[in-house]
Amino acid sequence: MSSQFIPKDFNKDIPVALIAGKGSYPFIVKDRLQKEGVPVRLLALDGETHSDLVNSFPEEHRTSFNIGQLGRFLKALKQFEVSTAIMAGQVTPGKLFKGYLPDLKAMSVMAKLKKRNAETIFGAIANEMQKIGVELLDARAFLDDQLADNGSMVGRVNVEQHHINHGIQVAKEMARLDVGQGVVVAKGTVLAVEAFEGTDEMLRRAGLFDAKQALFIKTVKPNQDYRFDVPVFGLNTLKVMSEAGIYNAGLEAEKTLILEKEKVLEEAKRLKINLFGYTLEVVEA
Question: In which residue ranges of the chain is pLDDT below 70?
Fold first, then answer.
C-alpha cells in the first residue's frame, strides 16, 4: 500500500469505515481509498456530513448517527464487518454542548472521564472500538502527498526568523496546554490564540489589529494522537487569511495536512499568501 501511516498487516480486501464530518476531507479520503481498491463503508454524522457524500454510497453501505449515539455507532461497525476505521472532517464544536443527546452507552463511557475534551472523548471512543475489534487508523493514512513540505512552498515569508521562532514557541506551548494548535503573531506580539472557536475565528480576531508582518503558525501537540486530531490547512483558511489581511503562514512539516494541496498552493500564490513548512530541528538550530 502507498502510505506510511497504515499498519503493516492492513488488509485492503476488508472494508474500511469512513467516519465523516464536515468539509472536503471525507471526500478526499473516500477517493484515495477507492483508488487503492479498498472497499469503503460510510458512517455519517447527522447535520455534519455533506449530502453529496452520503448519496454517493449505496444504502447498504452507509448509515448515519447523532454524535451522542455511541451504541448505534458501534453496532454499525459490527454490521459492516470492518476491522479498521478512519476519521475525516470537522465536527461543529458546539455539538459537544448544544444538542448533544448521549445514549446509555455514551453516558457510561463519559462518566468515567476525568476531563472532557476532544482528546479524551475520542480516545475513549477509540478504546470502545478496539473492544469490538476495530482499529482507528491514523487520519493521515493514504494522504502522504497532502502533508506540508519542509521549507518554502509558496512565496517568500517577509518575517524575520526570530519572530518566526517566537510564533512557533508560543504555538507549541498553547498546544502543550491543549488550548489550541494555532496562533497569530506579529513582530514578537501575540495577536490571537486559537481555542475552542477554531482557526477561522482566531484569524478574524487577529485581522482586527491590521498588524504588519502578521504570521499564522499551525502546529501539533507534543503527543499528538493522529487518529482523530490532525491539523488541517485548506482553501477556506486561505480565504479567511486574505480577508483578515494575514499573508504569512507556517505549518509544521510532515504533520499538517494541506487538503487539496495543489489547489491550495495555486490559490495561495494568487492571493500572495506566503506558505512555508517548518521542523523543530530548524527552529532550535
Answer: 1, 93-100, 281-285
Do 241 and 269 belong together in one domain? yes
Buried b (16+ CB within 10 A) or exposed e, 7-43: eeebeeeebbbbbbbbbbbbbbbbebbeebebebbbb
* Same-domain check for residues 165 and 103: no
Say which CATH number the domain at 89 has: 3.40.50.20
Inter-CA distances, 194 with 37, 190, 204, 227, Å: 38, 11, 11, 21
d(CA 146, CA 74): 30
Please report the sign of the dihedral spanned by the C-alpha atoms of residue 41, residue 47, residue 53, residue 54: positive
pLDDT tens digits for range 51-87:
999 999 999 999 999 888 999 999 999 999 999 999 9
* 124 class by beta-carbon count within 10 Å (0-12 exposed, 13-18 middle, 19+ buried): middle
Split into its structural domains, the chain has a count of 2
Q: What is the 3-state secondary structure (H, E, C) of 227-270?
A: CCCCCEECHHHHHHHHHHCCCEEEEECCCCEECCHHHHHHHHHH
Provide φ and ψ at 185, rounded to 5°: -125, 165
Report the run of H or E that residue 271 belongs to, with start and end.
Answer: helix 261-271
φ, ψ of residue 227 in degrees (nearest 5):
-70, -30
Q: How far, in Å, CA of 124 to CA of 2, rounded?
A: 29
**Residues of the domain holding 222:** 147-284
At 257, give phi and psi (nearest 5°). Answer: -85, 130
Q: Which residues are within 8 A (CB) of 223 and not within 5 positions of it... i.e. 6 or more apart?
A: none
